[in-house]
Amino acid sequence: MRIGIVCYPTFGGSGVLATELGKALADKGHEVHFITYQQPVRLNVFNTNIFYHEVRVPTYPLFDYPPYEVALASTMVDVIINHDLDLLHVHYAIPHASAAYMAKQIVKQKNGRNVPVITTLHGTDITLVGKDKTYEPVVTFSINQSDAITAVSNNLREETYSSFPIEKEIEVIYNFVDVTRFDKKPLDAFRKVIAPNGEKILIHASNFRKVKRVPDVLHVFANLLKEVPAKLLMVGDGPERPACEELARALGVDDHVRFLGKQEQMEDILAVSDIFLLPSEYESFGLAALEAMAAHSVVISTNAGGLNEINIQDKTGFMANVGDINAMSHFAIHLLKDNDRLNSFKEAAYQHALQFDIKHIIPVYEKLYGRFCRMDC
Ligand code: GMT
Q1: 377 within a domain of the structure (yes/no)
Q2: What is the pTM of this model?
Q3: In a mutational test of the pocket of ligand 1, which residue from 284, 291, 293, 303 has the highest number of ligand atoms less than 8 Å from its CB?
Q4: Vertex 263, ends 269 and 237: CA angle to 5°?
Q5: How many folded domains does the chain comprise?
Q6: What is the pLDDT of residues 335-359, one digit of tens each?
Q7: Are residues 172 and 240 part of one domain?
Q8: Could you report the per-residue pLDDT of 76-115, keeping only the tens digit for each?
């Protein structure tokens, strides 16, 4: 098949998922065309089946807001026609689903072809941004116009139905992880630098947005440090990072916390981790937590959104109500004070991650594509 993938090229979960999907499809022999405004961060391989089309947004003094959606739709039209795409798979509704709708209409008018559009909903496109009245009518319309709609968890499917008048079936296709990539032996030298005296290692990774409640990570860590020698790695970057660095100093834990910024080699970092902290206010799924589980890390998260679809209470990790710092601190201490318990949780987390392995999920997407394919694809 010849598949167009549209996503955000940044470190966000939807872009990561879309890029890994495209890479896996290319490995299986499909021709994959990424259409984005920048090379996706995880598109770090050379594969003759992968093509990357950069969306250029010409500026003009009149444009306070350069019309990205128009440039995106035009690039989609160009790639669909000139590379004879079988379908477009857009990740994150805004503005990808509406740009795809426009591209579809243009191709229909120009070539008489009805190119199928599949929209995958990821989270904040529905729960935060999409609900905003400024965007809602376009989001509702373009989701309804998609030939197929998927959501990354049951929770997101329900959230979508309760927030938007969606007339079509939303299919749940869970996010996935390439377990072989994350199931790595820790690099001893790295572990020694981070935790020279054998301290336990906790990790948080996110885009440091408000929805992630990153300060809760530091409060939990400060409580834990009173009882267990430990180090904390903070991976990623975003608007909350300066305040979090300040908070680490105010709590007096900054000597034990490293802010690593954006990192590509997550598998090497996660390999040294004992606990992954994700105290988010909402997660449709929590791909970062799943990657941590594949790396044998125990997840302590909130029970918000779809997190309970990947984290099993008292087995692969623990969940607490949003903002319940005491409960999360208690869970971390409970795990880190007993090595046998910690190891059995690590193994359970890894085993559970296997259910979301890439090899189970890619065929589900291929089957979905097959429903919309022309005879010759
Ligand atoms: O919140 C993020 O990390 C970014 C955001 C995105 O769309 O890039 O992530 C959402 O999609 C991920 C991949 O499907 C999910 O794993 C995240 O849970 C989801 N984030 C939220 O729902 C807040």
Answers
A1: no
A2: 0.94
A3: 284
A4: 115
A5: 2
A6: 999 999 999 999 999 999 999 999 9
A7: no
A8: 999 999 999 999 999 999 999 999 999 999 999 999 999 9
